[in-house]
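Q: Second attempt. The first request was missing the SMILES, so the protein and zinc ion are both included now.
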Amino acid sequence: MKNYSEKLKDQIIFFTREEIEWINKYGDWCDHLAQRKVLPKTEAQRRFVCVINHQLEPKFSHEFIWRKVEKALSNISNIESYISEIKNNEKIIDSNNQVIKSLKKQLSEFEDIEKEKKRLELVRQMNNQSGLVQEKSIFCILCGGDGGATGNCPRCGGNGMEPDNP
Ligand SMILES: [Zn+2]
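A: Got both inputs this time. The predicted holo structure:
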């Protein structure tokens, strides 16, 4: 069977040798009193149960030791929930980093596509200049196909298409 003081983990440094001995001897019994698995038999034990249940302030040395045990267990619980919160945050950061990595990859692919579009446009212009390709634009050369900013391009009448007889 484990010593009760092992539950105190690194908080044990706050206890004296005598306190640890008392805790190892009575810790389980105190737990059982607190959980009503054991009923107090004497007046002193009834008083101790009231201290355990925070209905009375501690007065005797063993009652103060039990308060220290409660404080130590509560510290351990707080530290453990803090650590688990940090671990959760690390998971969220990891997952966000994955999203950022994926977005950067998409952006890089998009930039590659834009570069390729510019390269093809350049090739097309060079072919046009050299007369290899006679390509008639379907868009109005004046507004570039947007009908002018307010859709009132005088050349295409706002539809953005190249007029048949300009
Ligand atoms: Zn136009």
